[in-house]
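Consider the following assembly input.
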Amino acid sequence: MGSVGAKDVPVLLTPDGRRIDGRKLDELRPIRIRAGVSHQADGSAFVEWGANKVMAAVYGPREVHPRHLQQNNKAVIQCKYNMAAFSVDERKRPGLDRRSQEISKVIGEAFDSVIFTEEFPRTSIDVYIEVLQANAGTRCAGLVAASVALADAGIPMVDLLPAVAVGKVAGAIALDLKKEEDNFGEADLPMALVPQSGRLVLLQMEGHMTEEELGQALDLGVRGCRDIYEVMKAALRERYAVGAPGGAA
Amino acid sequence: MGSVGAKDVPVLLTPDGRRIDGRKLDELRPIRIRAGVSHQADGSAFVEWGANKVMAAVYGPREVHPRHLQQNNKAVIQCKYNMAAFSVDERKRPGLDRRSQEISKVIGEAFDSVIFTEEFPRTSIDVYIEVLQANAGTRCAGLVAASVALADAGIPMVDLLPAVAVGKVAGAIALDLKKEEDNFGEADLPMALVPQSGRLVLLQMEGHMTEEELGQALDLGVRGCRDIYEVMKAALRERYAVGAPGGAA
Amino acid sequence: MGSVGAKDVPVLLTPDGRRIDGRKLDELRPIRIRAGVSHQADGSAFVEWGANKVMAAVYGPREVHPRHLQQNNKAVIQCKYNMAAFSVDERKRPGLDRRSQEISKVIGEAFDSVIFTEEFPRTSIDVYIEVLQANAGTRCAGLVAASVALADAGIPMVDLLPAVAVGKVAGAIALDLKKEEDNFGEADLPMALVPQSGRLVLLQMEGHMTEEELGQALDLGVRGCRDIYEVMKAALRERYAVGAPGGAA
Amino acid sequence: MSGEVTAEILTSHILDLASSGKRLDGRTADEYRPISVEPGFVVTADGSALAHIGDTAVLSGIKLEPGKPFPDTPNAGVLTTNAELVPLSSPMFEPGPPQPGAIEVSRVVDRAIRAAETIDLTRLCVTPGEKSWVCYTDIHVLDHGGNLIDAALLAAVTALLHATVPAKRFGIAEADYALEVGHVPIECTFVRLGDTIVVDPTVDEERAGQGRLTVATDEAGRVVAMQKGLVGAFSPDDVKDVVRRAFRHGERMRAIARGTGR
Amino acid sequence: MSGEVTAEILTSHILDLASSGKRLDGRTADEYRPISVEPGFVVTADGSALAHIGDTAVLSGIKLEPGKPFPDTPNAGVLTTNAELVPLSSPMFEPGPPQPGAIEVSRVVDRAIRAAETIDLTRLCVTPGEKSWVCYTDIHVLDHGGNLIDAALLAAVTALLHATVPAKRFGIAEADYALEVGHVPIECTFVRLGDTIVVDPTVDEERAGQGRLTVATDEAGRVVAMQKGLVGAFSPDDVKDVVRRAFRHGERMRAIARGTGR
Amino acid sequence: MSGEVTAEILTSHILDLASSGKRLDGRTADEYRPISVEPGFVVTADGSALAHIGDTAVLSGIKLEPGKPFPDTPNAGVLTTNAELVPLSSPMFEPGPPQPGAIEVSRVVDRAIRAAETIDLTRLCVTPGEKSWVCYTDIHVLDHGGNLIDAALLAAVTALLHATVPAKRFGIAEADYALEVGHVPIECTFVRLGDTIVVDPTVDEERAGQGRLTVATDEAGRVVAMQKGLVGAFSPDDVKDVVRRAFRHGERMRAIARGTGR
C-alpha cells in the first residue's frame, strides 16, 4: 500500500476502465487449480493464479506435536504459510517472519471455522502452504490451495473456502489486485467466504476506504469468491476422475 | 559502576553529607506499594520507588510448563525479571538478555529460600516482574513487588522479603542509590533480608569496597530492609482492608 | 580446500617426497590417547593428535531428552561435536554452526552402525566431543576420542572405530593432513573403519580426485586406521590397568 | 481438565444471556467498559500512555532514535510497532518469543497507524538516504481482561500524541520538539455471540465468541484497517453493521485519546 | 506404534526382494526412476528449475544480489546454498529451524558445486574488496519420495545453467547477462540392501537401507564430493564400485540438466 | 526417582558429617581441594590456562581481535566474558543455548575482572572512536566436580596473565606484545551446611548446601564482587566471616595463578 516517496506511479486505470493488464474492475486473473499433486501428503493442491504459484499440503488427522497443544475435545488446526526465498523480487531470508506468522494464524482460524474438528479429538490437522512465486494475493491463493488440499485429504468440512482480495486502485474498487496494483493502490481487502452460509471466515483490510466503498468491496469480493468456488469444485471433480496423484507442480 | 572514559562526573556528595537529590547517606527514596493491582494474576503488586516503576504478578501453584521441570517433592519457583523496551534511556531490545536472566535466577532462588515449596509438589509458582521505568535498584524494587504479590496470592512463606541496595558514592557508604549515583559510584550491593531470621537470601556486589566498608554496608542495608518491611506490611494491610483488586498501575 | 585468491601457497611437498613437517606421504602425525579423563562422565577420553586437542565424554544409556526422540526398540545415539571459541585462529562464535551439526550427524550415524543399540531400548547414549585446539582432522580425532570414551563407558559395540583423513597434496595422495596441507591441498577424505569387518562407517570427501586416486586414498586410509586402532587399544589397556579416572586433560 | 468444563458452562451461559440481549457484566451489546488514558506514565519514554478499558490495562511507550532510512525510501523515517503480551498479564500467556497473538496485535495496531497516516514519515527524515528517526512504538500489556487490540491502539495513539522528538539529546537540533501527529485511528473490536454482535469483549466473551472483528477508523471518515480473528464467521451485512458502530465509538474514544472527552 | 510394525515388515520385504535382485517398484539395482527437469519454473528467481526423480520433486531458485566479499577473499564473490526440507514435503519433517537432514543436503550440494568449480567466484567480483555478487542457491523440497540429494543438486545445477545476473536491475552493468557456469557436478546416491547396492533409493529403501553413499562427479572425470550417511557400512570395494556407477549415471543426468538428453 | 532418594540420603549424610566438623572427602571446613593451573594449554588462543580444583577442570582461552569501541566509551577497548557449561562436563548440563547457570558463571567472573581493573581498557584502544581491541575471555568447563566459579576465574586470570596481544598478526604494530594485567581477582566460594560454612564445595555439597556465597577479592585488599546463589541464607556475620576467609585463600590462589605458589 502506498509506498512512501515512490517516484514513478504507473497508470493503474485507463479512462475506459481498463487495468494495467487489461482486465476490467471486476475481473479475476486466470486461475488454475490441480488437486492431488503430492505423493507424500494426505491431501494436496497446486494453484497458479495470475503470476502466483502456490502449493498446499495437508497431513492428518495425526498425533499432535508438540504434545502440549493437544485438545481433548477437538482436533487442533496447525497452519504454516511460508514463502520460498526466491518467490519474491528481493530474496526473502528463510524462516518465519511476523507477516507469515500472522497469515498462518488467520488462515488457520478460517479453516478452524469450517472443519468439523470435534470429530477428531486429540489430533492435529496440519496445513502447509508454500508460496513459490508471488505476485499479490498469495494468502488468498494459499487459502484456496489449502482448502482444495483439505478436501483432497477427505477432511470433513462445512464447505470449501474460496478466497479473493478486493482493492482500491486509482480511486476505484477492483477485484483481485496484481502486484503493481497492490504496491501503488490505496487499499487491500482479502476475504474468504463460506459459500453455503454466505459468511466470511477470513477478513482483513489495510489502506483506506470510505464506508460506502467498503460495502461495495465486500459485495464484489463475495461475487469473486463464488466464481473461484466453481474452479475449486472443478479441480476436485477432475481429481476424483483421475484417481492417482499427479506429481508435484 | 565507574563508566570508562566518562567526562562529567557530577558532584555526588556535598561537604555537609547531602546527596545529589538532597538525601542523607542513610535515607531511602520515597517508596509506595500497592497490592492487588491485577485482575488476572493470583497475586500482584505495583511499586513506585524513587523514579522506578515496577509491577509484579504471581500465578500458581499451577501446572508446570515445560513439564520436564516438574519436581516430585516440591513446587518449582519460576521467576522472570523483564524490562520494558521504553523503561531505560536507550531503548532496550525486547527479549531476555543475560543480565535479566541472571537477575531472574537470583531472585527466584531468594524466594525459593522462604516459600514452603514442599507444600505444593509437582506444581509451579510463577513470579513475573516487569520493570516499566528504571532508575537504579530495579532488582530490589522488583523483589519487593514480587514478595508482596506472593503474599497477595496467599503463597505460604517464612516471611516477606524486603530488599534494598547499598552503594559507595564519593567514598561514602550510602543507602538506596539512584541512577547518577549508580553510574558514577564505586560499588553497588543489593540484598534481600528475611526479617524474622535476620539472614540474607539475596546478596550481590560489584565495584570495590574494603572489608570494613563492606561490614558497614551490610549493616546499613539490613536497617534499610527493616524500614521497607514496614511499608510492605502496610500495603498488605491496606489490600486486605479494600478486598477487590484496584486496577493495574 | 583451495581457498580462492590465496596468494602464498607454501611448498607442500619436497622433491624427495617429504611433507611440510617432514613426514612421508603415508605417515601419521604423533597421536596420544588417554582414556578415563573425566570424573563426571560414564566414559571419556582425551586425544592429542598432531596439534589437535580433543576431549570426548559419553553419558548413558540414560533417559532420553527431549522425550519425543525416544525409540521403543533401540537406544538413540545423540552426538554433539563442538569447537571451543579459542580452538581456531579466528575466534569461533559459541553455538552450533552448520558444519558442526553435519559432523555431529555423520559421527552419530557412524557409532549407530556399531553400537548394539537394541540392547538398551528407550534410552539415550549421549556422545559429546569438544575440540579444544584444532589443526585439521578434528572430526577424525573426535571420533577416535569418542570411540575410546564409549569403550570406557562399557557400551557394547561391534568394534572400536579408528578414523583418519586422507588428502591430496601437491598432486599426491597423503595420509593425515595437517592444517597447511588441508588449506592448500586439493582434496580431503575423512573415513572411519570397522577393523573387524573392514568396512567404512564414516566416509566423506571434498575437493577432487580421479577414480584411481580415490582408490589409492581408500587403501591408504584403511591402513592408517589400522595403525590408529592399535593406539586406541593400548590406551584402553592402560586405562584398565590404572583403574581410577586420571583427571581431565 | 475441570477448567475445560467450567469454561464450557460459562460459554453456554454467556451465549444464553446474549440471546436475550444481556451480558455477564450488565452491559448492553453496544457498550464499552469504562475507558481511561493516563499520558506520560513513563518518563524514560519519549511519549507514553497507560490505557484502561475495564479490567484491561495496556501501557505504550514511544522511543525515537536516529537511524538509517530504508534504501527504497531514502526520504522517510522508520516506524516500528512491537507488542509484548508478557506472561505477567494473563494466565494464558507463556514466556518466550512473541506468540502469534502478540504478533497479530502489533501488526493490526501498526497497520492502523500507517494507513491513517498518523505519523508523516517524511517528517522523520533528517538527511535523505543517510539519517532518519526511527520511531519505536512498544506496547506492554499489564492486565489482559479482554479486547487487547482496542486498548493497545488507544495507548499507542495517546502516547504518540504526547511524544517529544529528542532532537537536542541526540545533537540533531537545538531543542526537542513535539512529535507531529496526523489522523488518529481508533480500533473497535466486536465478537459474535449467536445472533448478537457485542462490542469490547471480555476474555470470557472472546472465549465464547463465534468470531472476532476489529475495525479501525480515523476522523477523516475512513476505514483504515480491519481484522477478523478467532474461530467464527460474519456476513457482509454483519461487517457493514459493525463498521457503522465502529465509527461512532471511534469518535468518542478519539476524544479520550486527545484529552477532550471521556 | 503400529506404524513401527508396518515399517519393519516393509523393511524385511525390501531386503528379501533385494536378495533376489528385485525392487518394490520393479527397477533393477542400477536403475533410476524417471528423471525430468523444468527450468524457469519460477520467474521471480534469477534462475530456477523444478527437478523430478520419480515421486521426488525439488525446486531450486537462484538469486544474485550485490554484497561485500569476505575479507580474506577480496577478489571473489560469495556462494551460499540453503536447503529447506519444509514439512509440506514429507510427514517426517517438522516445522522450525533447519534439522540436521536439511543441513546435510545443503552442505553436500554446496561441496559438489564448489569442488567442481561450477561458478568461478572471481567472475562474481565487481570491485575488489568492496562489492561482489552474492549467489544464493535455495533448494525447496516439494515432495520427498526419497533420494533428495540427487534431486536437489540436479535442480540446483539446472537452475544455475539457466541463471541470469541481474546487473542492469542493480545498476552494475548496462544489461543483464547469463551466469557463467563451469563444470556441472552430478550426485548419485546408493543404499545397501544386504549384499546389493541399489541406486536412487525411495523413502522406503532409505529406511530399509544399511548405509547410504552419495558420490558427486563432474565431466572432467573427477570425483568432487562423497558422503556416507545413515546407519550402515561400505567396504572400500563397495565404494570403488559405486564410484564407477556414479560416473555412468552422472553423464546421463548431466545431459538432462543441460537439456541435451533425458 | 531412585536417583532422588539417593540424593536425599547423601544430603543428610553430608549435613550430619558437617555438624561434627567433617566432610565426605576428609577435608576441613576451610580447606580447598588440590589446586593447579597449566598456562598455555591451547596454542590457538592468544592466552590460555587449564585450571584444576580437585575433580573440577576448567579451560579458559583468550582471543584478542580488532573491533570498534562502544560509542559511549570511544577511548576504551571491549571486554567480553563467556562461559560454556557444555554437556560433556556434567550429567546436569543440557545441549542448547546458555542456561542461567552458565550465564551466572560468566557474569560473576566478568564482574570480578572489571571491578579489579585487571585489564586497563584504555590500553586496548587503538584509534579513539574507530578501532580498539576486543578481548574475549572464553571459559570452557571440562569436568564439573563442583565450585565452577572459583575454577573459572582462576583459569581466566591465569590465561590473561599469559596472554599476548597479536598486534603484528593484525598489522597494528611491529610486534606482538604481552597483555598488560593489573590487579588479579580471585573468587572463593562457600556453602552453608547447617551451622558450618565450608569452602570449595563439591557437587554433592552444593546440592546439600543451604546457600552458596562467592566473594572475589584482589591484592589491593578490596572486595570486588559477591554473589549469593542457590536456595539458602546467610547472616551479615556469616558474610563478614566468609569475606575474611576469602582474603586469605585469595592470596594463596593468586600466587598459584602467577606461578609463584601452589
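The first strand of chain E starts at residue 35 and ends at 39. Ask yourself how this observation constrains the way the partners meet.
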